[in-house]
């Protein structure tokens, strides 16, 4: 299991190729790549702040729980921090398991967590200046789908 | 000595992100009171959902700060 925060851009294809390498017992790998989105033609830049040593540890804790819950063979999470331009990849999650259902569900749950509860602070730089943004109601509702399930 | 880190909008409000305070041993709440000499920061620290970590572990309530502790104040997390 690897959790990595980095300021540099990453290549999702290369990450996926590396993640699939040397697996004889794994029947399914699911990956998700999130891109920073421009909204309605505005030139928005995202700035993502993390607390190194805390943010990665918290994400690692959630990833470990997912490994146990979905019997995963492996997890890779790469998350950009700092300034991210529209169109750039911001997050990559890959899960490996014996069969596809567990890999799909684990990737879905990990993304819901990363989008709503992971220890990041997000600032949007637009034409009218910068503002801090909180998770959307939809992000929170998505994350709540997994609460209380065993 | 205590190292204090502010994240998200807290650092914008305070105008600093990291500071080392040369103080006698103190508790987390005493540190908050000390930082609240800046009224705007004090109000923000008392705001809803602001959490604190001591040496990168989330805290509940007050506690004595170990020598050389790293204390971080975290506004509500936004996700990535």
Notable characteristics:
heterodimer, A: 150 residues, alpha+beta, Aldehyde Oxidoreductase, domain 3, four-stranded antiparallel β-sheet, 4 helices, 8 strands, 33% strand, globular, B: 80 residues, Ubiquitin-like (UB roll), 5 strands
Give me the secondary-structure topology.
The complex is a heterodimer of chains A (150) and B (80).
Chain A: E1 2-6, H1 12-20, E2 28-35, E3 45-50, H2 55-69, E4 74-80, E5 82-84, E6 89-97, H3 100-116, E7 120-126, E8 129-133, H4 137-144
Parallel strand pairs in A: 1-4
Antiparallel strand pairs in A: 2-6, 3-5, 3-7, 4-6, 7-8
Helix pairs in contact in A: 2-3, 3-4
Chain B: E1 2-6, H1 9-14, E2 18-21, H2 28-35, H3 39-45, E3 51-54, E4 57-58, E5 70-74
Parallel strand pairs in B: 1-5
Antiparallel strand pairs in B: 1-2, 3-4, 3-5
Description:
The complex is a heterodimer of chains A (150) and B (80). With 150 residues, chain A is of the alpha+beta class. Chain A has a single domain, classed as Molybdopterin biosynthesis MoaE subunit (Aldehyde Oxidoreductase, domain 3), CATH 3.90.1170.40. Chain A has four helices and eight strands; from the N terminus they run E-H-E-E-H-E-E-E-H-E-E-H. Chain A has helices at 12-20, 55-69, 100-116, 137-144, and strands at residues 2-6, 28-35, 45-50, 74-80, 82-84, 89-97, 120-126, 129-133. In chain A, the strands form two sheets. Chain A has a four-stranded mixed β-sheet with strand order 1-4-6-2, with helices on both faces. A four-stranded antiparallel β-sheet of chain A has the order 5-3-7-8, with no helix packed on it. In chain A, helix 2 packs antiparallel against helix 3. The radius of gyration of chain A is 16 Å and the shape is globular. Chain A starts with a strand and ends in a 6-residue tail after the last helix. Chain B has 80 residues and is an alpha+beta fold. Chain B is 26% helix and 25% strand. Chain B has helices at 9-14, 28-35, 39-45, and strands at residues 2-6, 18-21, 51-54, 57-58, 70-74. A five-stranded mixed β-sheet of chain B has the order 2-1-5-3-4. The radius of gyration of chain B is 12 Å and the shape is globular. The N and C termini of chain B lie far apart (33 Å). Classes of the chains: A alpha+beta (150), B alpha+beta (80). The interface between A and B is medium-sized, with 26 and 15 residues.
């Amino acid at each position: 299991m690897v959790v990595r925060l980095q300021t540099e851009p990453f290549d999702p294809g290369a990450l996926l190729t590396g993640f699939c390498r040397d697996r004889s017992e794994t029947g399914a790998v699911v990956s998700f790549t999130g891109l920073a989105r421009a909204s309605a033609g505005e030139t928005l830049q995202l700035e993502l702040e993390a607390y190194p040593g805390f943010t990665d540890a918290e994400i690692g804790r959630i990833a470990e729980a997912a490994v146990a819950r979905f019997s995963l063979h492996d997890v890779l999470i790469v998350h950009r921090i700092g300034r991210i331009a529209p169109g750039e990849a911001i997050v990559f999650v890959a899960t490996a398991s014996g069969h596809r259902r567990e890999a799909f569900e684990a990737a879905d749950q990990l993304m819901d967590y990363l989008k709503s509860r992971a220890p990041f602070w997000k600032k949007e730089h637009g034409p009218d200046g910068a503002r801090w943004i909180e998770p959307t109601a939809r992000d929170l509702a998505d994350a709540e789908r997994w609460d209380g399930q065993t | 000595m205590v190292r204090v880190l502010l994240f998200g909008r807290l650092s914008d409000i305070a105008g600093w992100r990291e500071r080392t305070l040369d103080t006698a041993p103190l508790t987390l709440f005493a540190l908050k009171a000390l930082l609240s000499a800046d009224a705007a920061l004090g109000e923000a620290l008392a705001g809803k959902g602001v959490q604190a970590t001591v040496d990168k572990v989330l805290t509940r309530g007050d506690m004595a700060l170990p020598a050389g502790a790293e204390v971080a104040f975290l506004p509500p997390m936004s996700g990535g």
